[in-house]
Amino acid sequence: MTNLAIVEAFSNLSDPRRGAGQRHNQALCLALFTLAVAAGCRGFLAIGDWLSAYHEELVTLFAPAKGRLPSYSTIRRVLLNIDHEQYSTCLAKFFKITPRAGEMLAVDGKCVRGSYQLASEHSTTESHPAIQLVSVYLVERGLILEPYQVERKSNEIKVLPELVKQFACCGVVFGFDAINTQKKLSIHH
Where in the sequence is the domain holding 158, given as residue range(s)? Predict the structure, then answer.
């Protein structure tokens, strides 16, 4: 398989599928899905039609193993099991999404559900608190920028000054929730 940039964009995404029975590379499936949606496909049957219509060109371009492209149902199964936040991050990096002057950025922090690890006699890893991420949503275009991970023993308030420094030069408008409007929060730019 070729190493096109769009395939490489998804190559480090964790693959939850079992090794047995995998015929198609997950990164290839995600690249084809992304291109099909960008081409206007709005469902898996449409993606199947797109794959059929451009089969020869796609095989030439991607050079998949044994010259076989995944079916739309294989792409669907891959999408059902991926971490959608990781996929979103890969897309943001690939498309190099940056806000423009005057656009609104909504900022919010969340704990990743199920990311904590409690110590037990059967666990194979050390206990740790939940992973906290700060998401930046580009309101006008409906896009999520790459999330920022909050350091342990901290919270989203500590990440906010860094975000403001990074995006203030772009002339964007920020939208925060109540936790980020504290008096002691000092942002110098």
Answer: 98-181
